[in-house]
Amino acid sequence: MTAPAIPGTDVPDWLVARRSEASRRLGDLAMPSEREEIWRYLDLDFDPAFGSAPSQPGVAGDSDELTELWTGKVVSVIDGFVTDRGASTVASVSEQIDEGAGNDLFATAYDALAPGAVLIDGDHLSEKVFVDVQTTGVATTFPGVHVDVPPGSEASVVVRFRSTTDAPAVVVPRLTADVGDNARLALTVIQDWNYQTRAMARAVVNLGRDSGLTLSEVGLGAKIGRLHLDVNFIGRGSWAKIYGVYFGEDDQTLDYRYFMNHIGTNTRSDMFLKGAVEDDALSVFTGMIRIETTGIKTEAFQTNRNLILSSGASAQSVPNLEILANDVKCGHGSSVGPLDEDQRYYLMSRGLTPDVADRLQIRGFFEETISKIPHRDLLPWIRERINTKYITAQEEGRV
Amino acid sequence: MSNALEVTNLKASIGDLEILRGVDLVVPFGEVHAVMGPNGSGKSTLCHVLMGKSDYEASGDAFVDGVDIMGMAVDERARAGLFEAFQYPTEIPGVTLDDLTEAMAASNPSDEGYAARESATTKTLSMEPFRERFVNVGLSGGEKKRSEMYLLGVAKPKMAILDEIDSGLDIDAVREVAAMVEAMRSDDMGILVITHYSRILRYMAVDKVHVMVNGKIVQSGGPEVAEELESGGYTELQAANAR
Ligand SMILES: Nc1ncnc2c1ncn2[C@@H]1O[C@H](COP(=O)(O)OP(=O)(O)OP(=O)(O)O)[C@@H](O)[C@H]1O
Ligand SMILES: [Mg+2]
User: Fold this and answer.
1) Exposed site from A108, A308, B5, B15, fewest CB < 10 Å?
2) How far is B154 from B120, CA to CA, in rounded Å?
3) Residue A370 falls within a domain, yes or no?
4) ipTM surpassing 0.90, yes or no?
5) Residue-wise pLDDT tens digits, A238-254
6) What is the rounded average pLDDT for all residues in chain A?
7) Is residue A395 domain-resident?
8) Taken in order A49, A55, A61, A64, is the CA torsion positive or negative?
9) What is the Å distance from ligand 2's center to B43 Cα?
């Protein structure tokens, strides 16, 4: 398969080499098998149509409520292409981080076909940055975002994925970040693809010494909304707080595969995800805490709570531990179940109808996580979107 | 004239377990009654069955201000004027007390008094710091009871049942709660206080004391009944009213 040309003249050699090398491998790769644990809950019976990767962006969508709420800088990535002046078209993503993104069909297709990632680095990070990633109806696109946080600095980035049409699409996003020593990154990802989109996202974050990451993901859209995340705690004393909220309806599958790789000593991870599913939706969360022999004094915790709101919906919640070091502290909690009867009874005893009582319970359930997301100006929008999904399901009699 | 609460031959069971075995009880408007009784005698079950909790199979009659509540859903009973202060108030994570009272006011739009009662009760009970906190989450035992009293003040029901509102409270708090019950006494409300101790009854004037044993009211009388129980305990009454 040959990759479409990249617009512009200063395409770096490493990118040309990566693309041609990956293109050669891509021809031999098949769709991953659902027999492999990591793919097992996905319906992979679709044509990824990699041949239709575009050579130029389509027409950008209008700014919307969310970008209007935003008070910082906005950078747009349209069909995988960076369209704003002032942001680099091609990120010089470190090899280490791209290798960490794997070599399965989708990762290889990204390496072969992506026109490069938008680079958010020191030049942009004096201000908070909103990356507006759009697909415009093109069959298959490869948007990339790389955040490079220089040592000792603080960065605040939101990446929002959206579709500007109702057209079905395959999107293979890649999101990478290098957080330097003593640096901080607050990164919020809002996944809001249309319900015909199959999004196979891959994210890798490398953490330097004493650095910190707060990563939140809000899962709203997509037919398949997959996010495979690796956080590599390389520097000693590095930490990450990982938050997630997701709400599946229709025949959505929201598939989260989170890997916390503790390599440095004295590192700490906390994962806290809450989700709900109704209609025929499926959610999957597997949190893997892997502590290498060098990861002495690691502390790693994960909590995943799921509400099943209709009989056709289901949730898989699988905590995993792989501990090779001594002197570590780990904990996990996971639950899958319906709304709480005692809460409903209590709220009804205060005069609330069952519908209003359940709405309040849902709001409270998500609020515990939403309130932790550091991008506070976006929270009203996030609350509204989640609550509207639930209220619509109530009104249409599905829950 | 109708009474705040009228209960006739109320029975409740779960599976084969008969918990209430025919309770008769009348609380007229303007009166404060107490129900006392040993652990497990069915006092909380009486509250929940009147409130309409679905765990129980119930039969018998119950009227709030003359309105038959037995066929009603839990929220309809609340809107008909029944309030239960829970012995073990439920935690509602992520929902603040203000969120809850806002929803209460919205569910009862014909009553425009919510805002006024909120600020008045906030003052009486010094609730300011709790209104922004999640309902009952992380509250001490005593604070939960105070929060229930706050909701009672905000709801201003026709009939209030307070299930062990004094349990776990220190002396000052018991006095404060008793004073508030006294202050709420009015011609348009009946109050039933469920308690284990005559302590709280010292700080408020109860019109009647009922003793519940093994799912029945076995004795009713004036405040002196509480004093007798304090010295004699339930042993004799239990022996005489074994299942
Ligand atoms: N949901 C339930 N499931 C099973 N048993 C129950 C249930 N509710 C009440 N019971 C039983 O019914 C009996 C009465 O319980 P209840 O809570 O009404 O007692 P109580 O008088 O309020 O006691 P206490 O003074 O300890 O609060 C007890 O034996 C209790 O175990
Ligand atoms: Mg009780």
Assistant:
1) B15
2) 9
3) no
4) yes
5) 999 999 999 999 999 99
6) 93
7) no
8) positive
9) 5
